[in-house]
Specification:
It comes from Pseudomonas syringae pv. pisi str. 1704B. Helix content is 34%, strand content 26%. By secondary structure, it is an alpha/beta fold. A hairpin with a 4-residue loop joins strand 4 and strand 5 (133-134).
């Protein structure tokens, strides 16, 4: 008998689940879990609501609602939707209500820093002085530098690429629609290139 921990990509609780959530990661994880259990394997299905996503803060600002309360309300809706289609994770975590979540994130960051895998340096980032928000992910929108379609500064839903904010055109604040300004900020970056050998070993399967 084998043991599996199946994790589902966490949905952002800025609303209920949509068909893409259900038909994609949730259904696939549920089918895999059921099949493994039928084969006699021990299988645990887990997921959580992505409470700290930047889209939560933006939605809260747009609706004049505390984003923490908004996350709790929509997590209730998400769990009800999953129950209605008989997808039942063994554990569903809500980060805002989990006292260990922030501590665990801090431990991971600390371990990476101690391993010299974190680089802190200045970078130029889009910023809206009127709204006092950085144009990260949910807070900036423009034209994707890969396909030209309108896209948030995170992932283009048209071509599935991750746009480069510096190369996007007509980049503007998502809250007030004013053009983004560029401002220097001191940030921490993961030295991802240093993990290339380990990632290759994990992801590339022999043919």
């Amino acid at each position: 008998m084998s043991k599996f921990i199946v994790t589902i990509t966490p949905p952002t609780p800025n609303g209920d689940l949509h068909i893409g959530h259900i038909a994609g990661p949730f259904l696939a994880a549920d089918v895999f879990t059921r099949v493994q259990r039928q084969r006699g394997h021990e299988c645990v299905l887990v997921s959580y609501s992505d409470d700290y996503q930047s889209y939560m803060l933006r939605k809260g600002l747009e609706q004049g609602v505390d984003p923490v309360e908004l996350a709790r309300r929509n997590s209730d809706r998400i769990e009800a939707s999953l129950a209605a289609i008989n997808i039942q994770p063994d554990n569903w975590m809500r980060p805002h209500d989990n006292p260990w979540f922030a501590e665990a994130v801090g431990e991971v960051f600390g371990a990476l820093r101690d391993a010299d895998a974190i680089e802190c340096r200045d970078s130029s980032e889009p910023y809206c002085p009127d709204c006092d928000v950085w144009g990260y992910e949910a807070f900036a929108r423009g034209n994707c530098n890969y396909c030209g379609a309108e896209s948030d500064a995170s992932q283009c839903e048209n071509c599935a690429q991750a746009p480069d904010a510096e190369l996007m055109t007509d980049l503007r604040c998502k809250l007030c629609c004013q053009p983004s300004q560029w401002k220097k900020v001191h940030r921490a970056f993961l030295k991802l290139a240093g993990f290339k050998p380990q990632l290759r070993d994990r992801l590339v399967r022999p043919t």
